[in-house]
């Protein structure tokens, strides 16, 4: 890997294309290096993981709405939509959009946390949709996804967006565009322009994850994937993009990030170097914000030590800056303490999550968020006894590049009414690659079978898993096998019509 310094340049400095971040990303995407076998295996795991979460969310309102929008854009050859028969294909950008919402709705797929935050699995829907539409093979898809993961992880490693309240999908648009470029075998110039265009149209604020969090949290990455496809299409037709997108005098760094004078350090593979960044990412065992994963496991471990939870006087979670200020009491969001808050808001309240996990000894992707569960009086009472505080050491470990120090959890102090203090800490979720029970293929398979039980028929579950696990052998045009089909009755209530299906 080579670390590249990225900063703002005045227009008069005339920064050469070869020295721009977008060009360097494009060079990585256009480099026809082989994909290592362990990377291929992890890509298969993450396609299974995405499908598992999509199956569990297929009937939920936001997913049904996105699917209804997509189905008004039928197209041949097109791409498939999760749950829908394979012969009912839609335009690829709309398939990416519908499937992206399904993947993201439950906040239950893979994650990478460094200078910023991300869910790299969000790259899969747009790259897969384009691969299906263009008749690519499994090997082509693997190369495209290796690039998508690589670029997103590298951008997240080097450039912090959240401190400027920019949503992390600003890293996803460029990574998906780069992955599509690799998939299609595009030249460096074309990918360069597409990456910049994708950045320009996917930069939004973090209000989507603040206050009254709405379903847009699930839609935002899907929208970024859709925009990435459109960006690549536009550039393939000979159009350009704002340039230089990151370094320009009026560009991304100058006015949306830390401004002139600031240097960002972005690592990228050198020419001929394999793209292995997916191996630095990790999935979720529990359907909740990633910073809550280790704390759910810790609550599960501490519950038996406490015994009678009614005897708890207070709970203080000592944790990182991110956990405290984004999903903890440091956010200052009263909605995070509201039993009538949306699922999306509860998912970003570690106080609620820790209370329920402590009471139930675990977490369920639906039952733990049910309104009747959130309104249980004893839960509300316990919930309001919980607070978070930033511990500089946990913040340091959160940002550490040393895998032996990296930590996403915290230390919890439970004080009982008699003054007894029960303390414990956990740095990494059990399912993390360095955790107590790292996820392997069998865990991904079980996650898919569990989340799709009663939704996808048994024979279809088996067919899907067999197809994915043979991904490298799928021939050109065979990628339709990566869709799953369910009975129409499993797709949720019909959605109200909108502009696209307006009939007057």
From TrEMBL:
<dbReference type="InterPro" id="IPR045336">
    <property type="entry name" value="MmgE_PrpD_N"/>
</dbReference>
<dbReference type="InterPro" id="IPR005656">
    <property type="entry name" value="MmgE_PrpD"/>
</dbReference>
<dbReference type="InterPro" id="IPR045337">
    <property type="entry name" value="MmgE_PrpD_C"/>
</dbReference>
<dbReference type="InterPro" id="IPR042188">
    <property type="entry name" value="MmgE/PrpD_sf_2"/>
</dbReference>
<dbReference type="InterPro" id="IPR042183">
    <property type="entry name" value="MmgE/PrpD_sf_1"/>
</dbReference>
<feature type="domain" description="MmgE/PrpD C-terminal">
    <location>
        <begin position="286"/>
        <end position="471"/>
    </location>
</feature>
<dbReference type="Pfam" id="PF03972">
    <property type="entry name" value="MmgE_PrpD_N"/>
</dbReference>
<keyword id="KW-0456">Lyase</keyword>
<feature type="domain" description="MmgE/PrpD N-terminal">
    <location>
        <begin position="20"/>
        <end position="260"/>
    </location>
</feature>
<dbReference type="GO" id="GO:0016829">
    <property type="term" value="F:lyase activity"/>
</dbReference>
<dbReference type="Pfam" id="PF19305">
    <property type="entry name" value="MmgE_PrpD_C"/>
</dbReference>
<comment type="subunit">
    <text>Monomer.</text>
</comment>
<protein>
    <submittedName>
        <fullName>2-methylcitrate dehydratase</fullName>
    </submittedName>
</protein>
<comment type="similarity">
    <text>Belongs to the PrpD family.</text>
</comment>
<dbReference type="InterPro" id="IPR036148">
    <property type="entry name" value="MmgE/PrpD_sf"/>
</dbReference>
């Amino acid at each position: 890997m080579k670390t590249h310094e990225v900063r703002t340049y005045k227009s008069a400095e005339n920064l050469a294309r070869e020295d721009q971040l977008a060009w360097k990303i494009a060079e990585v995407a256009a480099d026809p290096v082989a994909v290592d076998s362990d990377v291929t295996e992890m890509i298969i795991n993450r396609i299974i993981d995405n499908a598992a979460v999509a199956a569990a969310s297929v009937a939920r309102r936001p997913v049904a709405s996105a699917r209804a929008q997509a189905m008004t854009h039928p197209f041949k050859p097109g791409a498939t939509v999760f749950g829908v028969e394979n012969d009912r294909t839609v335009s690829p950008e709309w398939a990416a959009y519908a499937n992206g919402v399904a993947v993201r709705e439950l906040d239950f797929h893979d994650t990478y946390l460094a200078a910023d935050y991300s869910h790299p699995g969000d790259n899969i829907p747009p790259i897969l949709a384009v691969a299906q539409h263009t008749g690519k093979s499994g090997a082509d898809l693997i190369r495209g996804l290796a690039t998508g993961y690589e670029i997103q992880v590298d951008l997240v490693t080097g450039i912090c967006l959240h401190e400027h309240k920019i949503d992390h999908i600003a890293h996803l648009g460029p990574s998906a565009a780069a992955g599509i470029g690799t998939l299609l075998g595009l030249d460096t110039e074309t990918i360069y322009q597409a990456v910049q265009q994708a950045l320009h149209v996917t930069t939004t604020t973090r209000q989507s994850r603040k206050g009254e969090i709405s379903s847009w949290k699930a839609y935002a990455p899907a929208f970024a994937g859709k925009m990435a496809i459109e960006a690549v299409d536009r550039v393939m037709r000979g159009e350009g993009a704002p340039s230089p997108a990151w370094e320009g005098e009026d560009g991304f760094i100058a006015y949306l990030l830390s401004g002139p004078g600031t240097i960002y350090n972005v690592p990228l593979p050198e020419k001929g170097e394999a793209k292995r960044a997916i191996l630095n990412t990790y999935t979720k065992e529990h359907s909740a914000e990633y910073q809550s994963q280790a704390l759910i496991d810790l609550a599960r471990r501490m519950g038996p030590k406490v015994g009678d939870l009614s005897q708890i006087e207070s709970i203080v979670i000592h944790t990182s800056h991110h956990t405290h200020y984004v999903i903890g009491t440091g956010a200052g969001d009263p909605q995070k303490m509201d039993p009538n808050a949306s699922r999306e808001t509860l998912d970003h309240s570690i106080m609620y999550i820790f209370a329920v996990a402590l009471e139930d000894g675990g977490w369920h992707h639906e039952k733990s968020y049910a309104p009747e569960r959130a309104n249980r009086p004893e839960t509300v009472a316990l919930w309001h006894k919980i607070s978070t505080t930033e511990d500089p050491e946990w913040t340091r470990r959160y940002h550490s590049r040393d895998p032996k120090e990296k930590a996403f959890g915290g230390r919890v102090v439970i004080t009982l009414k008699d003054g007894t203090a029960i303390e414990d800490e956990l740095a990494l979720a059990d399912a993390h690659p360095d955790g107590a029970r790292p996820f392997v293929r069998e865990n991904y398979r079980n996650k898919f079978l569990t989340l799709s039980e009663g939704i996808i028929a048994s024979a279809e579950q088996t067919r899907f898993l067999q197809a994915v696990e043979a991904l490298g052998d799928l021939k050109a045009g065979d990628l339709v096998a990566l869709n799953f089909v369910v009975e129409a009755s499993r797709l949720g209530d019909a959605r109200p019509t909108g502009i696209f299906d307006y009939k007057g």
